[in-house]
Every structure is written in C-alpha cells, then in structure tokens.
Amino acid sequence: MVRPPLASSSVPAGASARHAPARPGAWGRGLLALLLWGSAWQSGAQPVPAAPGAASAVVVGAVASAPAGAASAPALPADWARAQDQYWHAPRTVDFIRRLEALQQAMDQHCQGGLVIPVRTAWREALVAWLRLSAVPGPDLLAPEVLTRLDAPARAELIEQAIEAAAEGTLQADRLAPGARGLGALEWLLWTQPPGVSLKAPPSRSRSTAAPSRRVAKPAAKGAATKSTKTKAAAKTPARRAQLDAGGWGGAADAVGAVLLRLEQAASAPQGYRAQASKPKPAAPAKARKTNAKPARSTKATKATKPSRTAAAAVAAEPVDPLLAGGRSAAGQASRTAQPAACRLGRALVADLRTQSLGLADALARRLEAAPVLAVAASAPSATAPAGGDRLGAGWLEALVQLRVQALEQPLQAEAHKGRAGLPLPRQLSGSASVDRVSRWSALRALAVGEEGGGPAGPGLQGLAWTTRLQQAGHAELAEQLLQQANAVDQALEAALPNTPPVLHQAAEALARLEQLVVRQVLPALS
C-alpha cells in the first residue's frame, strides 16, 4: 500500500537551537543521561486517580471527531505525540484494564476457596499487557510515580507489614509503600511459599515408601477437613472487608465496563463511534422474556430455578486449593495467598491497580482532548515538530537501554560476582523473565518496524514506524538495515529462552548493535 509522503521535518526559522538535528557525538553524550532515569522511579509521590466516568466521556469527545482517513495515514511530525497516544497508548490501556478485570475475578474465586493457578495465569496476562503499555512511556503520561505504584520491585518486609495490617483490619491500600503494591507485590504473594508449608516432591510409587505415606496421610486428611471448613467460613469475612477497603470493586463493575467499551471503540473506530454509542440496547429482549414468562411459563420458570440450589451446592463442594484446606501442597502450588489476610491484601492490590489504570485512562483522554485532531495532510510542520520527534525517539532509546541493562547485563554482572548462585533475572520469582524481555521488545519492535506480533494492533501503527518514515524520507537502505537488525534481535531473544549466560550475552550484544544503529544513523536521519 502506497502512503502519502510525509511533510518536511526541517527546523523552522523560529525554532530554538536545541531542536536542531542531533550529531552522532551529541547522541552518544546524551545516552549517559538516559541511564540515570532509573533513579527517578524511587519517587514516592502518588497521583490522584480521576473518576471513571470522566475518562470515558473525554475519550469519546476527543477521538470521535477524528476523520476516517487519519486511521491509515502516517502521523505527521507535528502530531507524533498525539499519534502515539491515539494509536499506541489508547488500545493498550484498554487491554490492560481488561486483563485486570480477569485478574480480579480470578483473585475473588481464589480467596473463596478456588485454585491459585488461574490467578497466576491472569497475573501473567496482566503483566504482558502492562509491559506493552509501559515499554515506551509517552511524554508526561507514565510519570515515575505512576510507574512505581503500578510496577515496583517487591520488598518482602513491607509486604509482611501489609499482611499484618490486613489481619488486624487496618489495611489502607492507597497508603502502601511502592514496594508493597503493584504487580511486583502481587507476584510475591502468588509465588512465595507460605510459612510452615513444605514443597517437597510427592513420594515415589515404590513399595518401600508407599506404606509409610498412607499412615501419615490419614491423620493429615482429618486435620485438613477440619481446617477447610474453618478457612471457608473465614474467607467470607476478609472478602467483604477487602471490598470495603478497596473502594467497592463489585459496585463499580458497570462503570469499568463502560470505560472499557468506550475506550476500545474510541481507539479502534473513531469516526463511527457516535453511531455505535447508542447501539448497546440488547437489554430490551431481556425485559420481553421476563414479561412473557409471567402468564403461562411460571411453573416452568420455577422448575428452571430449582437446579440453581444444586448448582450452588456443587460450587460449594468443589475441591479447594490444598493450601487453603490446610493439606500438603504439591510442588509449585504453594502461595502466600492461602492465608486469609494475604488474600485480602491481594484483592486490595488488584483494586488499587484498577484505580491507577482508570487514572491513566483519564489522563490519556485529557491529552487527546487538548491535542489537535490528526489530519491526513498539513500545510507545514509546526515549530515544535522536531521536538516531538526527539521526545519519541529519546523515549524509545531509553526503553531499549533499560531492556539491555536491566534484563540482561545487570543479572550477568551479578551472576559473575556470585559464581553459581544463579542469575538474578527480573520476574524470576514467577519464572517470567523471558516473558518480561519478549513483551518489552515486542513494543519496541512495533514502533521501530511496524510489526507488533501478538499485541493489540492500532490502525495508525504503520504511520508511527521508523521504517515507514525512513522510506518516505528517501532512506530505503537504512530502513532495510533497521529491519534486519530487528530480526537479529528477535533471533537472539528466542535463543535466550534457556536463560544461560552465553545466550544472554549474545542477546545483549544484539541489542547493543541495534542501539548503535539507532543512535548513529536512524535518529539523525529522522531529525
């Protein structure tokens, strides 16, 4: 598909000197400043989340007026910031909130006696959605204090204090320290072994060990049966108290669903959204069923409702997590959330994540409302056009440096000092180190070459891609070189799945080569 050429990105006469095209030496000196960004995420400031209704209303008014052609047209230099918000952050914010909805449901079921495996699966899916959203933060959208509230390294001592507060009924989720909240704290709760629970492998099936295991199993089963009834009865009270402390997640389910629907439609179909906004009226057939069921089908309706008691009894009789029942857990099944207080803390953390995600949606909606609507063409780029390109490129480069340093080089250096103690990889507790690397890289690759992979695709993604801009600016060879280098990083990260030092070194070298290409050639060409 042939796209219209981009407007010239030359620096206007009125632009300041700092917006001039950067020299390779200047980019090399500026790279050191990017590495210092990690110290800012220790900030303890906390943003005040806005109401969910405001987020949905502003997004509808801001994005619905965009023309249809803007969805497939490449973003102009003056509109880079808005294009990143509309085509990149908006769909990923919707996906992140949806994953948090699934995580909340899984956590509720687990705290009522369900298994922990669905909660872990939902946590991994929410982690992937968050990494794709936050890998390349937009200007002033994902501030360091927001990042620390949503995803900060877990601190065991702070989480233990929060569990004690939950047990005493004095938990206040909005006042927790960054090390005791967010996805990192949830990972600690879901994968940390509870005190007093053994993770030994199940006994072998040989005759010599089978007999003793039967003798020990009988008294343990009786104790498990008595503890399971107590745990089920005690799980209801923490669940209700956690719902009050968390701000009433269940009561806000309709509002969250409305925000999701409007955000998704506003990001994917800007022009036809207003016509679709009045469409969700499938509630009328439901009322018709109720009115038609009154005259002659009353007996059938009562018969249909009788199995609900048996269904409720079946749900109550479902096998609970062995940890919740007080029995012996198999390897990999242990979770600190087996304790009612820890499970209550987990529900409060998920509710806090929901509040923060809705605050992001509101901030994104305000930015879309304040920025001019994307157009297919413009007469000339504004005076701030190079500044927008520099900010987007600097954010991408910063994310690439963090991926190389945090996920690969720092663990390798720590492993070299500790010998055979093991690689201290990110998300190592949940075994999601490779998921962390691949998810962050998929976001970087999408903005570089326009190929996103498994993430939610935006209609203007190709317009944001560097390869598209390079080709339209007459740098076809450089665009092909960038694509080849991105493919080399793909192969290196795929080979790094065993998490062994040699393959991790190769992945770090591949990222370093891509970084040099971007600093020395790509960004100067785009400036």
UniProtKB/TrEMBL annotation:
Domain of life: Bacteria
Annotated stretches, region: Disordered: 1-22, 197-248, 270-315
Ranges of compositional bias, category Low complexity: 201-241, 275-286, 293-315
Signal peptide stretch: none
Name used for this protein in its record: Imelysin-like domain-containing protein
Species this protein is from: Ideonella livida
